[in-house]
Amino acid sequence: MITITQLGQNARLAAHQLARLSSSAKNQALHAVSAALLAHTDDILAANARDLAAAADHGISGVMLDRLRLDAARIQAIAAGVAQVADLPDPIGTVLRGYTNADGLEILQKRVPLGVIAMIFESRPNVAVDAFSLAFKTGNAIILRGGRDARHSNAALVDIIRRTLHAAGLNADAVQLPDDPDRRLAEALMQATDYIDVLIPRGGAQLIRSVKEKARVPVIETGVGNVHIYVDESADLDMATRIVVNAKTQRPSVCNAAENLLVHSAVASRFLPQLAVAMAAVHAVEYRADERAQPLLPNAVAATEADYATEFLDYILAVKVVDSATEAIDWINRYTSHHSEAIITRDIAHARAFQDAVDAAVVYVNASTRFTDGFVFGLGAEIGISTQKMHARGPMGLEALTSTKYYVCGEGQIRE
Predict the structure, then answer these.
(1) What total number of domains does the chain contain?
(2) Three-class SS of the chain
């Protein structure tokens, strides 16, 4: 059984070696990993089939099974993400600013790797590869701790990556996936201040809360998406219908799916019945509604306070009728998880006020929240969606995994 000390020492050594790699060497290795993933599609699918069978025995829901499931198309997308990261500009070594100070010192501020990243995540196998590719491109070693439901899938993916790195003459410990189900290992990662430079939890509210409570290492909070869409009184209701249906049903198990719907009272009696018909044509949805919305939706049940604060990750939608855009903004800021929020409106003033006042990493006007994604935003893959206000917020791509360092050159100056 590997210890946190061994993991940490392996990662530190790998990080020091990665920091010296050229951009071309990193890119070549990433393209090799992309090709290897495609070449081993059958092995990955076989491992994923084992996870799917075990998850079904555990009674996992169909929606959550979809998060776990891999097929040839999804593996192609994972491999394409690795290749896209390889083709992105390398931020390491970028000069953010340079100047000569009053003492004649030449000062440069450059981007550098963070060092060692730890990631604790739940059962989405693509996360392991996305996290590796971004960490590797930025010269960081990464320790992955995946959920039990994706145990075999993650192991297969990481094994392919490690073998590919080794074949290229690189340190395979650039990525480590300890195969130890003991939760004490995850807690040890949270405490490993001697080895871990940053910890990124990616998963549900319970995981995020546990990490925040127990971690001593720096944490970047990601993932939880209690996402709202507000349909304003001036909204194009056909547009609003398409957007809400897409945001709720296109893939309900992900963090950028809509969980809450707010509708202006001036259009609620027209919009909600129209939405219910369109939604039913795609997939049955359970509505949990306030007293004004409930009569307008088929088989709606009364919403509780907890419903408005819940990330369902399922075909469930909490619905509330409001009397103004200001009321919608205040409601959203009360319940938001600071992930993604949207307004559907033709009122430019309302759109600007909403984007300025809503406290979230991504705020949309007249578009589905399903676009909050590193790949869609042009970042290649993503290591998560940061809901904090530190150096990284929103989809976290390459720059989010860097720090800066000052390079100072003089000619014998001393401070008087």
Answers:
(1) 2
(2) CCCHHHHHHHHHHHHHHHCCCCHHHHHHHHHHHHHHHHHCHHHHHHHHHHHHHHHHHCCCCHHHHHHHCCCHHHHHHHHHHHHHHHHCCCCCCCEEEEEECCCCCEEEEEEEECCEEEEEECCCCHHHHHHHHHHHHCCCEEEEECCHHHHHHHHHHHHHHHHHHHHCCCCHHHEECCCCCCHHHHHHHHHCCCCCCEEEEECCHHHHHHHHHHCCCCECCECCCCEEEEECCCCCHHHHHHHHHHHHHCCCCCCCCEEEEEEECCCHHHHHHHHHHHHHCCCCCEEEECCCCHHHCCCCEECCHHHHCCCCCCCEEEEEEECCHHHHHHHHHHHCCCCEEEEECCCHHHHHHHHHHCCCCEEEECCCHHHCCCCCCCCCCCCCEECCCCCCCEECCCHHHEEEEEEEECCCCCCC
